[in-house]
Each structure stands twice: as structure tokens, then as C-alpha cells.
Amino acid sequence: MAVSTECEKCGHALAGDAPLGLCPNCLLRTAIEAGASQALAPFLPKLRYFGDYELLGEIARGGMGVVYRAKQVSLDRIVAVKMMRPGLLASEAEIRRFYAEAKTAARLQHPNIVAIHEVGEFEGLHYFSMDFVEGPSLDALVRERPLSSMEAARYVQILAEAVQHAHAQGILHRDLKPSNVLVDAAGRPRITDFGLARPLEGDAASTASGTVMGTPAYMPPEQAAGQHDKLSPASDIYSLGAILYELLTGRPPFRGRNQMETVRMALEEKPAPPREVNPEVNREMEAICLRCLEKNPARRYASAGDLAGELERVLRGEPGPRAASGRVRRWRLIAAAGVLVALAVLAMWFAGRPHESRIAEPGVPGVLKQSPAISPQLSPPPAPPPQPHTTAKAAAKKKAPAAPPIASIGFSISPDRGAGYSQTFTLRFTDPKGAADIQTAEVAFSDPGANRNCAVFLDPDNGRVELQFNPSGGPGLRVSGNVGTLGRIENSICAVDLTEAAFKLHGDDLEVKLPVTFKQGFEGVKEVRSSAWDRKGASRVEGHRCEWVVGPPTRP
Amino acid sequence: MLYNIAMPSQLGSGAGRSDFASTQWSMVLAAKGDCASVAMGDLCAAYWRPLYAYVRRSGRSVEDAQDLTQSFFSRVLEKDYLQHVDPSLGKFRAFLLASLKNFMTNEWRRENAAKRGGSARMVSMEDMTRAEDHYSAGLGIAQSPDRVYERNWALALLERTTARLASEFAAAGKQRVFDALKPYLTGDGEARYSQVAAELGISEVTVRVSVHRMRGRFRDLLQQEVADTLADGGDSQAVEEELRYLLTAL
After folding, report:
1. Residue in B closest to A61 by C-alpha
2. Span A11-43, pLDDT tens digits
3. Potential cystine with A216: which of A174, A262, B14, B22 (Cβ 3.0-4.6 Å)?
4. Touching A: B residues 27-56, CB under 8 Å
5. Considering the domain A138-203+215-322 in this protein, what is its CATH number?
6. DSSP A435
7. pTM to 2 decimals?
8. Which residues contact A232 (CB under 8 A, 6 or more apart)?
């Protein structure tokens, strides 16, 4: 049986196969950082401390900036610091561009865009600090192998929403490419390097007309032609299409022997259909990708939001036309009408159904217990028509008008008994009359009487789930992630698949889809309990026991 | 035909070998001759355990996984195999996994195991058993077979490098120093240099300098090991990228 503990330094699970008994993660990281500090030396011979920052290692370098991993001493947090390389500061234009970049990016506050904290100058060195994102770039991920069509769709859908957010504020990125997308520990893609971004209506003089700026392989033809006055949101949509192309096929749409040839191809040639490069690419994804890559900007999606919507539809597995955006919008209206009809049918179904009763557990005030006899009825109602994995906040905006009345019991879980290492549980928190909305909830799988439990914290407002890092050590550090993003969060006891996890609102009731994989070493009978807090901070639901046996699944 | 690439006991514990002869994947790709096969065997010796872990994670039994791994090696080390290797495959890590997947779907049949590798074992049973212990120790962490492969690859790399470092210290008669300093290979954490200095009877400054040097040497060895598995081992950026990628695999 696998026995694993956690590394005291980094918290990574430490298995019995660790070399010399040392944490492999710390071992490799220390070696990499030892090298980074050596690489740093030629540029910044005496700079270990830099204003409020202690530079820990070099992360990356581009045309004009070097990015360091650093500790912001006053706030005791790890950040990334991007600074101009000494010696390259001679040109006023470059300094102006550096500040323009930081100023532009600092206006963007979005979970999928790397946030800028501070811009400044220290002893003649210009820099800005931003979130430190630990994880590979999409570039590194796809270099290993192409992603599945659905994985690619999920990534680009999230990116398109972030780009839409920037466009709504009048900001173009102009250099979107896989290496500018970092994937954080929670599997969340985050756009970085707004090195060439500028306000849509901004200073045209900062970019000389006729100069090709950007990265040729991902560049729209209007940019490859140096026609900067023709850049528009459609230019970023092209680049999103180029990213999608690479995620699906493992290579960018155009790859010449040199940059000039790539520029020529971007101007003149049609990309090879993705299915020719990788036959496993889904037909719809191919059509979406090629539409983004249209030479004529008017033939691409009308907005990044439209592209996101189209990808979301594919992710939901819904059929749809591959036509112009006008048709897409019409289709959406029809689809929305279909959802309403289905909800109305559900409401009628529930109206004719008796409500389950609340049964108080003897001697424990407020504890609700589910009667085994009614467990089948307590299972969540038939799934409503497919909805996107989305945050509860977003879902709240689209709240269904005719919410079906659901059982008045506070909490239910389905399945409520069984065995296995992996299981997708559906949790349902119902809203008793007169109570405020559920704000946070917790569900714990624990051994009766034992100190170990797998506690999952649910934060529907922000679409997040959290796991306590060291479950036996009491409250403390938690790992968290956004539902619907690629990846998972895990501790030494269990892992939660974020891609499949989802929050849904049914009227005022909250439904949570929670795919959990328990680890070896946590076997045995578990009791499941839950509690939730409403907006007044009162714990108003507690209890409901059910049994789950962590171990090999048993057959009925 | 099988090539006498190493004694079985050496094969199973590449990390424990004393010579650590540098064998480069780029050389294998360039030569493709008899020498290449020998070099190839050396590389396989260092990285066979990730393959075993992949096979196990793909749902094969211990016995099947042992046979399959042995058979795979017999096949890979055949003279004509390298003739079909596509140099554009790049990394040895990717090549080995692609070859294994191909072998598992197209070539290997349980009943053929005896004909191929079953009778002439390339990896000793003892090492196979150790590989199974190793595999099950890491079970709770990585999930898909590909992830298991990559994680085990990173572990094999670290293990080989730490063993090289340890043998260098031992050769210089500094086994005790290595034992005392090795926890610092993972960073400072709760660094108690003074305590170590007292234990070894040297000054605290000497301990600091030694730790710094040991880390630098570890990094050099690590880079060499990684470079050996890349098509262009001379490209330091490629080495750095591979190291960072492997960090994500752990």
C-alpha cells in the first residue's frame, strides 16, 4: 500500500520512492533556482535586493524585459518582477513603452489575466511587479502532445472570455500566443505579457507604422502586413484561433523556415485544416478554428465573447450551426427558449410531488437526518437541460424564473452509500424559507472517531472549491481552485477534479457536482457530514449522515 | 539478437553504477550503428523504470509488466530498430514512451514473451521487484499512465544524479560530509548550519560554502544527465526547459 506524507517545505506529497528520502520537488526546484541565480549574475551582479524585493531567480527574458521570481519583503509574498535589462534603457521610446505596458495591464482585473501590482523605478532600473504564476505555459504543455478537442476548447473558451473583458475596456493584446498563457497550479490559464498591448484609442505614435511587431506564427495578416491602424478585436480573435490550432494539432497554423517566410504565409496562404494534421480533431472545433483564422477580419467571429459562447456550446455537447454570428445568436435564443420550456416541465413535475419531510435527529437540535426509506426521493431531481459549468454568481444572473420547489431538507448527497476510490457526488443545499442565501458550505468525509477527514470547502459566490492542505493539522493553509477550469486540487487524502466540478443554482437552492478521488491510505468507512453558512454568518444546516466506503467498488 | 549491453545487475540499477559513462541520445541518433545500440542500451538502463511504471499503470499485472518490459528492451536493442528512428522525435523521453506505446498496441503478445525476452532477461528479477515496490510507493500521487511515466522519469533522473553526486563525495573520502549536507540539496528551510558545523568539526562558513558548492555540482550533474537525453544536448535553453517541464511532472 502506498504510504505518503507531505514535504514540510513545499507541502507536496512525499512518497516512499523519494530519492535519498528527499522531496523530489524541492530537490529539482532548488537545482533550477541555483542555476537561475547564476544566470542572473551577468546582468545584475550586485542586485539581490531591489527596492522592496528580494530577487530569487530568473523566470524568463524577452526582447526588452527580464522577469524574476521575487519576494516582496514588506508583504512577505512571492511575486514576479519584470524589469528592463540594464543597458537597454537608453531609448526614451523604450521606457515609454515599458510604462505604457504596465499602465495598460494594470487596468485589467480578471481571474484569467495576470494582475499587475506596482510600477516603479529603482536606481535607474524600471520595473513592475505582478502575480507570480507557478506553472508551465501552454506552449510547454502542447509541446509534449496536442490536447484533446475538449481540453483545447475549454482553455480557449476561458481565454476568449478574458480577452473579451480586455476588449470591453478598449485594450487589445496584440501578441497572444501559447507562451503568453501560463497555467497555474489550479489548472487555470492566465494571460500574461501585455508587452505590445496598447489602448484601442491610444497613442498611435508609439508603434511605427510598417514595422512588424508581434510573433509571426500567431499574427493576423493585417498585423503581418504592418497595418497597425487596421488592428481591431478581430486581430486578437485570429491569435486565439492560432492558439486553438496549436493546441489541437501541436503546431502553429504557419511555420516557415524563417520569420520572413512565416510572415509571407500568414499573408498569402490558407492554413492546413486541423483535421489534416491531427485526424482526431473534432469537426466542429476545426470549423471554429478556421473561422478565427479567416484572412478577412470581417469573416471572423464578431467578438471574443461570441467565440467563447460558441466554444461553450461545443463543450456542452449541443449541436449548432457553423454559420455567421447572426445565426449563432438566433440559435442561442432558440436554445434559451428550450431551457425555459424544460424548466417549466420540471416545475410541473415537482408541483405534483409531495415534499420530503425534515426529521430531526433525537437529542441533537437542528441536526437533520435523512430517512433511509426516502433516500431515492432525496436524490437530486432529474438533471435540468445541460448548462455550462459556471460560477454560481454568473448563474445567479441567469436565474431561472420558475424555480421548482425542492425538498425542504437542508442537505442531500447522492449517491449516499456505496464504495469506491473515485466518485462524483451531487450535493444539494436547499434553502429553508426565511433564511438568507447560502454563502459557504463544507462537506467532510471522515472516519468516525478518527482524526483524519477529507474536508471540501465550497465557495459558490466565487466558483471556488478548497481543500485543507494538512487535514490533520487543524485549520490552516488551503489549496483552492475554480470549478470548470482544467486541472484538479489535491492534498494527501483526496483530489477534486475541477474540470468536472460545478455549481448550479436551482432557484435559491445550490447544487454542487463534486468529483472526488480518495487516495490509498484513506480506506475505510466514511461518514459524510455537511454544514453551510448563510449570508448572516449563521450555520443553518448541519448533519445528514451517509456512508461511503473508500476502497475498491463493490458490486450490488 | 540481443546485445550485451551491461551485466544484468548493472542494468537494473543504473543509478548505482560507478562509472556513469556519459552516453548521449544525440550520439545514438547520429550513429545508428552497432555503437549506437550499445549506447542505446546504456540509456535504457538508466530509464527503464518509468517504462515499467507506465505498463503497470496501464492496467497490466506484475507478471505481464515484467515480461512486457523485458520484451520491449529486446526489441529496442535489436540492430535494425534504430534504423527506423525518426530524429525529429527529439527527446529520448518522448521516443521511449512512443516506442513503448507502439510496442504495446502492435507487437507484444503475451504468448510471444518467451521467444523475445522471457528467456534472456535484461533486467534482473530482483530489480524488477524493486521497481514494483517503487511503483506502488508512488501510486497515491500520479494518476494517468502518461503522468506516472513522466513522474517516474523525473524521479529516475534525480535518483541517478543524486547517486552520481554521492559517489563523487565517496570517492573523495567525504561520505560523512555528504550525509550531513544532503538535506540542504532541497533548499535551506530550517537551516541549522551551526549544528552541522559542530557535527563535522568545521566552521559554519565552511558549511555554507560547501552547501553552495554541492548544490552547484548537483545542478551541473543534473544538466549533464538531461542533456544526454535530448537530441541537442548542447542547447542549454532546451536543457533548462526540460528541467522545468519535469518539475511540473512531479
Report:
1. B237
2. 777 777 788 888 888 889 888 877 654 443 444
3. A262
4. none
5. 1.10.510.10
6. P
7. 0.40
8. A172, A297
